[in-house]
Amino acid sequence: MHKILTIGEILVEIIATEKGDGFRQATPLIGPYPSGAPAIFIDQVGKLGQAAAMISRVGNDDFGHVNLDRLKADGVDISGIAVDPLGTTGSAFVRYRADGSRAFVFNIRHSACGTIRFDEATRALVGTCSHLHVMGSSLYAPSVVESIIAAIEIIKSAGGTVSFDPNLRPEILDSPGMREALQAVLAKTDVFLPSGQELFLFTQAKTEAEAIAELLAAGIKVVVVKRGADGASYFDRKTTLSHPGFAVEEIDPTGAGDCFGATFVTFWLNGAKPAEALEFANASGARAVMISGPMEGASTRADLETFITAKKG
Ligand code: ATP
Ligand code: MG
């Protein structure tokens, strides 16, 4: 039986209810919603009934409890999430612009999850897991990068696997050491889940086909390219497959990539055929965008089956 682990940021998300460019004027807000890319990912894994754990840190405050309560309710092992009595839980304020792009104000590096430490208890938890999922956004602080690299070594040397979603936001790309850390993770990746220009971050290639070929030649087993409303494509050395996006009304795109990735990795680890894993992942991403709030649109397997059946009509 597989157990999937993530290490990284736990935040609350607070959403501006009116579109506009950032936060330089007072604007109505709604939240807190449980959030943080690896937290959304692992919540979606837990909701699918797959064994799941997270290593992180929150403050002993309501924002921390919003997250702990949700993850626990959805079946995630939260024993690796430390509650720091002196820390404050991370936060992200997000406002959508009229063109659909997003402006963020993040408090991550200087929040409780900026001080994640790899100790004996975390080492023991990592030892119970067979797969690590890494979010590029989680490489925001040296101690988190060290924890992720240590976990990769433990899991891979025990025959486990690693998936990696670069999940880059311009606001955090220039964190110290982030580019080097991204490269180090990619070198150990089995399943790579980029979206948009992230496919070209680590290659010299000019075209998508060349970039995929380069990544597969470098030892990555599977590349899945996320294409928003247009769905996603799957590549391994033998197979190329695409699945169109399911037609839905997009209310809030945050979390779609995380739910998509969690569903793909869960199905892949459990031996699903690529076409089935891709279809369920697309359904998971589509359901995520229909609901406001980053983690609110995570799905159970029954939700996905009902959705797919209804869409195929
Ligand atoms: P995130 O903002 O969560 O980081 P991402 O860039 O990683 O997102 P996207 O490509 O935006 O990932 O979305 C992931 C998947 O979710 C898509 O591949 C698709 O399956 C589904 N999806 C996203 N947006 C839509 C949409 N508007 N309609 C239908 N499906 C969607
Ligand atoms: Mg993403």
Shape descriptor: globular
Q: How far is the N terminus from the C terminus?
A: 34 Å
Order of helices and strands: EEEHEHEEEHEHEHEHEEEHHH
CATH class: Alpha Beta
Strand content: 15-25%
CATH architecture: 3-Layer(aba) Sandwich
Structural class, from secondary structure content? alpha/beta
Largest sheet: 9 strands, mixed
The count of strands amounts to: 13
Organism: Ensifer adhaerens (Sinorhizobium morelense)
Domain Carbohydrate kinase PfkB: 1-297
Protein name: Sugar kinase
GO molecular function: kinase activity
Task: Give a verbal description of the structure.
This is Sugar kinase. Keywords: ATP-binding, Kinase, Nucleotide-binding, Plasmid, Transferase. Pfam families: PfkB. With 313 residues, this protein is of the alpha/beta class. Helices cover 34% and strands 21% of the residues. It has 9 helices and 13 strands. β12 and β13 (240-243) form a beta hairpin. It is globular and about 50 Å long. The protein starts with a strand and ends with a helix. The structure holds adenosine-5'-triphosphate and magnesium ion (MG). The site of magnesium ion (MG) has 4 residues, from loops. Adenosine-5'-triphosphate binds next to α7 and α8.
